[in-house]
Amino acid sequence: MARTVKPTAIPTSNIISDPLALGMFIRAKRTADGLNIHEAAALCNVSVDTLGNLEKGTGTVSLEKAFHIMRMLGIELHIEPWG
């Protein structure tokens, strides 16, 4: 029997100021969609280590790969004008 994925809380701040903050949003979306890390990595065509490192804000995941994962999971990044 497959295990149910417990949704991770969505971060309360919408400010992404470091890799960990981005990773928290990615994990929250993945778990909200009911995907375990293996399923999501397969969907995104990346290794489990790559996705795990991105979610933990560690390692050297390229910006290109991070945006690819975000697109595959249906995450959009919006930037508000400043000044």
Write the layout of secondary structure elements.
Elements: H1 19-32, H2 37-44, H3 48-56, H4 63-73
Helix pairs in contact: 1-3, 2-3, 2-4
Distance between the termini: 53 Å
The biggest sheet, with number of strands, parallel, antiparallel or mixed sense and barrel status, is:
none
CATH architecture of the domain at 19-73: Orthogonal Bundle
CATH topology of the domain at 19-73: 434 Repressor (Amino-terminal Domain)
Helix content: 40-55%
Q: What class, by secondary structure content? A: mainly alpha
- Number of distinct beta strands: 0
Q: Please identify which CATH superfamily of the domain at 19-73 we are dealing with.
A: lambda repressor-like DNA-binding domains
Organism: Tolumonas osonensis
Domain HTH cro/C1-type: 26-82
Protein name: Transcriptional regulator with XRE-family HTH domain
GO molecular function: DNA binding
Which tags fit this structure?
single chain, 83 residues, mainly alpha, 434 Repressor (Amino-terminal Domain), 4 helices, globular
In a nutshell, what does this entry contain?
By secondary structure, this protein is mainly α.
Structure, described:
The chain has helices at about 20-30, 35-45, 50-55, 65-75. It is globular and about 50 Å long. The N and C termini lie far apart (about 55 Å). With about 80 residues, it is mainly alpha-helical. It has a domain at about 20-75: lambda repressor-like DNA-binding domains (434 Repressor (Amino-terminal Domain)), CATH 1.10.260. The protein is built from four helices and no strands. The protein is about 50% helix and about 0% strand.
